[in-house]
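Weekly modeling sync, notes
Attendees: S.R. (lead), two postdocs, one rotation student

Agenda item 3: backlog of single-chain predictions. S.R. asked that every request posted to the team notebook include the full sequence so nobody has to chase files. The rotation student volunteered to paste the first one in as an example of the format we agreed on. Action items at the bottom.

Example entry:
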Amino acid sequence: MAAEGLECPICLTLPEGEVHQCNEGHCYCVRCWDRLEEPRRCPECRQPVPQANRNRAAERAIAALAWSCEHCGVATTRGAKAAHLAACPQVPTACAAAAVGCGLAGVMSEQEAHEAACPSAICQDDSEDEYEEDEEVDADEVDTDEAGAEGHGEVDAQELTAWAEEHGMTADDAAAVFDMMGTNGDGKVTPIWMFAHYRQTSG
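Predicted structure, as returned to the notebook:
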């Protein structure tokens, strides 16, 4: 199938992906279509155009065109181009640690073996692992704090009375301590110095 008549008349290339058209059938690639300035008009017939008006027949025709990978020579279609390039072993690639100084300029099939031995990539992976571990620790601390908050108010009346008697308090005073201080998350009350603080502040 020939590509004649399917090129975008603005950038003069075959559209990659969506194709949009005006009401008169003039077609454009999505990049050029999205760049039309207000008031949006077709560059050829000057008719107003909507924000989106896809020509799926043109998209299918372009997807069916033959295409060969410039890196490995595999022959396929333009519709399969993106998927092939994502997995092509001969696509040029750089090390994941390029930003911190690794100068690898190889191909995808070599990348995994290189990064397994590259000091910069290994250090970068270790740093990312430590960052993730720190985030997990922070999340655990948040969970512990929330558990402590949820433990507040879970002491039953019998336990409250016993604790009040143990510390020479009335049940109402003990309840006030629990309301203000809560528990430590495992059902145990807070230390007695907190009660002393409560008595001082409550006057």
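Discussion: group reviewed the output briefly. Residues 148-153, 189-198 have pLDDT under 50 and may be disordered.
Action items: rotation student to repeat for the remaining queue; S.R. to check formatting next week.
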